[in-house]
Amino acid sequence: MCTASLQMAAIGMSPMLSSMAKAFPEASTQTIQFVMTLPALVVALMGFVFAFLSRRIPNNILAGIGGLLGVIAAVGACFFHPSIGVLCFWSVIIGMANGLAGNGQSNLVNKLFTKEEKPGVLGFQTFASSLAAMLMTFVGGILVDVEWNLGYLVYLIALPGMIGCFLFLPNITKPHPRTLENAGEEAKDPSSAQKSSARLRVKDLILPILAAIVVNLIWNICTTNMSMFVEEESLGSASQAGTAMTVILIIGAIAGALFGLLFKKLGYRLIVIGFLLLFSGYMILFFTRAYWALLLDCLLFGGAMATVMSCITMRIFEIGGKDTALAIALMGLGSCGGTLLAPLATGWSAGLFQSPLVRYRFLLGAILAALSAVFTIAVLITKRQKMIRSAE
Fold it and tell me: Is residue 177 part of a domain?
């Protein structure tokens, strides 16, 4: 929980977007959305910075520095925000905080736990980050109804994580001796030792990175348009938009807690299920346009994002070998690409459907989710056929 509070940091801005647009009427819709998605670009860059620094500085210290930056951004953005340019600066600081804390969290999981333990720990990690983000959006919606800039104070949630990283997590730069790699298990299973010391192959990264790009694009079409949709359809206030995001995160937390069990039963078929949930959520919202439909949509979205991203992370752990920190950074780059593409969906949907309405952006999200599900099914079938042929 200590290292997870900033894993979904950018989502804390979601309740502020419509109010921010009113505070800066000269800014376009895409510019306002960019304030929220800009941290993703910084997160991707920080992944490579983390991969370099983690060879010399313990992972928990880097994660703690990320928490410190989150606290600085909370106070700074709340009290000093004269222009969109300054808000973009604070978004960069939030991205740095997210990048250090998030990469620290993933690398600590990889180095402290065995192969058998990792799915369960990843599930708890998702649970914790969803719970933290849930608190941010719920409290953020209430604060934004008072004054939009107060919404930045939700990033003070990084304070307990910062303290926990500095004081209670072990200083570690290499895999802990209790893990499979260093516990003497290599002698029992030489293939495991060989796999853990293998170098990263670029071709193995193509599909995980592609999946990260697509799922983050689809996810952020929702998060960057949620408060605007609520206002456009007269469904309520900023606090109700925050409540809708909270529902996403509650279900994400539950899905995260169950991920270890689900992954053992279904494996990477969970990715297909996740994309189908995203498709269903968008279609329900497009045709219904009611607050209850928004909440139902959020139920589906929460479970989908948690399971798909956890599956991608598991795959990164499997193929990373000695270069897992670099593989995590590249996955972050893919996630960043999808997040940064989300504001462009505003123009894509307007051009494709000849309408500026938010619900058509959601229809575009549904189409992307359906195509992604079909592609994933094809990939899984192809891999299974290759395994059968190799076994023969």
Answer: no
